[in-house]
Every structure is written in structure tokens, then in C-alpha cells.
Amino acid sequence: MHTEIRKTVIRNIGLCLSGDMHAPILEADCIVALDGRIAAIGRARDMDTDDATTLVDAHGVALAPGLIDSHVHPVVGDYTPRQNQLNWIDSTLHGGVTTMISAGEVHMPGRPKDVVGLKAMAIAAQRWYENFRPSGVKVLAGAPVLEHGMVEEDFRDLAQAGVKLLGEVGLGSVKDGKTGRQMVDWARKYGIQSTIHTGGPSIPGSGLVDADMVLETGTDVIGHINGGHSALPDDQIVCLCENCLKGLEIVHNGNGRAALLTLNTARELGQLDRVMLGTDGPAGSGVQPLGILRMVAMLASLGDVPAEIAFCFATGNTARQRDLDCGLLEPGRAADFVLMDQAQHAPGVSLLESVALGNLPGIGMTLIDGEVRSLRSRNTPPAARLPELVTGAVAS
Ligand SMILES: [Zn+2]
Q1: pLDDT tens-digit readout, 40-82
Q2: Distance of CA 365 from the midpoint of ligand 1 (Å)
């Protein structure tokens, strides 16, 4: 049986942001993807661009890997009961985000806290987002929070059923480092990644997780190191940066000053590749469709990092820390892209300069697995130039 290969060609790219901190800008004006995977990146004159099923003329705008939100709290489909919002994931796609990672489906009304119930919900959540991608966005979910009574077999069962993430340690009944460490070790043994709620309580009912507990628990990611909302004291944030090599996750729904302290400390340590971005939405502060872009612009403008590096915090760094197949412009990786340009009338002479001055880019298009998922963003300021879908259609 013959099935047609899907060929995606994006040409006339003005600026190619790789997602890789060590070479953040590529000398390339064209990308070719086959069946949703990047096949080649380079100069169009040297590439086979014929017979594209999807052809995009970028008209000189910038292309970056689709942004990754390292920290969200989805519940089901494109609905969140946290602020009673519909289509928050679609809105976030219009902010350039193509992959979201659950830090626990904790806003599910009546969330089960008994072991069999929490396992069942985690497995179901993993399935319902695997089976249904809202607007095409990849939502990696099914992230149980730790409750007392879980034993090693529970983590083996979860892993065998397809669960790959833990929700934030500290959001369930396990609130001590010793028990947390034991369970995180079991999770890791079966290939399940872990994160932790760093800082003060987020809403009534949650608790404090201080630096000692973060270090003792030893999760793969230091979840919202800048608090969600309340940050730890400065000395504890510096201590976390200095005393482990885990991912340093900075979130929009946290403390901006603590975000800059984390960034500055990571830079002094020569470890900016640990920095990754999330929103922590939906939360008490709402949903943040432009949250990742706002973090990029904030860190680029106030944190003394080049804008092209700040984009790596939202793409390649997260992909590497979390072992994702997207987030970097490399052959073999998922063809998830965001096309964007300097916003109309934003100061600066280029996209990167306008972001370095604290302005958001205007998004013109997103692609996921080589398929166009959105055109001009309804949420960002309008871009000066827009890419054009020459051949093919927006996926539905
Ligand atoms: Zn949290």
C-alpha cells in the first residue's frame, strides 16, 4: 500500500533560532520536514524543496522551535475549572507554545487521594491528552502527586501503564524530604521524571517546601524555583543553584525578582543551560497565554542575556532537561515551529533587539509535527511581517 509522505518546506526564513544555547542562531533560510520530523536545515539553493505538501514562505520572519511550557496544571481537554476557562490551551498556542508539561492535574474537582484512585486518574489523564491534543498542542500529562501509602509497586504499575511524570512533590500529603526522596527514587527507577513545589504555599491548603527539602528529595527539576507565588529567601535560592545540578525552572506565576536572582546565579556558575521556563498556569493568577513569551522578554530585557539565549530557556534547555524530542532545530526532531517577527511599532531595529528591549514578538504562524496549526496570533501584538501558507491548509 502506498501512503504519501508529508513534506513540509519553510523557505525565506530571515532568522533561524536553534534552541541550542551553544549555537543559538543558525546560518539557514530553509527547513524541510518529512512526516513531521525535521529532515534538513540549510540554504534553500542546496536543498530539495520540490513537491511540498505544505509550503510556507516565511517572508523574512524568524523561526524558532515551538515553545515549551515546562509547568502547567491541565485537567481535561481544553477546559480548566481553576478559573472556569475554555480554550486556554488554544490561546496558549497563539502565544507560540506547542508543548506543555503537566506538573500535576491537581485542579480536578474531587481529585482522588487514595492510592488506587490517584493511580487511576494519572493513567486516565495520560490517555486523554495522548488521545486528544487540544488545537494540536502536545500536552504531556498524567502526573500523580505523592500521597502517603504509595509503595514501590505503585510506581512500577504507573510506569508500565505509560505514566512518565510525577506532579509537584509537596502538593499531596507527602511533605517531608525523607518520604519524598524514597518515592522519587522509586519513580526514577522506573523512568518517571519528578518535580517539586519550591517555595511557600500557593493557595490555602498547600504548604512550604524549603531548600533543605528540595535538596533532600532530589527531584529531576526544581519546580518554580522562583516560587509559585511566594519565593524562598535569596540565600536558599542561591543554595539550590549551587548545590545540585537539577533543572532550574522559572515560572511566570512566581516572583520576578527571584527569577532574576536564579538567572544571575546560574550565569555566575556557568550553568545557564539549566534554566527552563514555565507558566504554572492555570493558577490563582489565571491562565497566561503569552506567559512564556513574557518570560523570554523579561529575562532578555532585565536579566542581561541575549534574546536568542532567552529563547533557548523556552525550547532547547527544557527539551534536554526533560528528554523531549522537540525544542531544537536538529534533523530527526519533531517539526514543531513558531514563526514570528518584531511587533508593529515596537522599538528596536530587529526582532531580537525589540525583545531585548522587553517587547513581545508578534507571532505569525505555528506548526506542530510539520502541520500548520495557527496563522496570525489573535493574542500577540501584530507582527510587522507575516509568513504565508502557499500550499496546504491549516490542520483542524
Ligand atoms: Zn507549585
Answers
A1: 999 999 999 999 999 999 999 999 999 999 999 999 999 999 9
A2: 31
Query: Is residue 330 pLDDT above 60, yes or no?
Result: yes
What topology does CATH give the domain 67-289?
Answer: TIM Barrel (3.20.20)
Q: How many CB atoms lie within 10 A of CB 289?
A: 25
224 CA distance to ligand 1 centroid (A)?
Answer: 7
Strands ordered across the beta sheet of 371-374:
25-26, 15-17, 62-65, 337-341, 362-368, 371-374
Distance CA 29, CA 40 (A): 11
Q: How far is the CA of 255 from the centre of ligand 1 (A)?
A: 12
CA of 339 to the centre of ligand 1 (A): 31
Q: Where in the chain is the domain with CATH 2.30.40.10?
A: 7-65+329-391
Q: Looking at domain 7-65+329-391, what is its CATH homologous superfamily?
A: Urease, subunit C, domain 1 (2.30.40.10)
The model's pTM is: 0.98
Gap from CA of 165 to ligand 1 centroid (Å):
15
Cα-to-centroid distance, 192 and ligand 1 (Å)? 18
pLDDT of amino acid 6: 97
C-alpha 142 – ligand 1 centre gap (Å): 16
Query: In the predicted model, what is the mean pLDDT of residues 135-159?
Result: 98
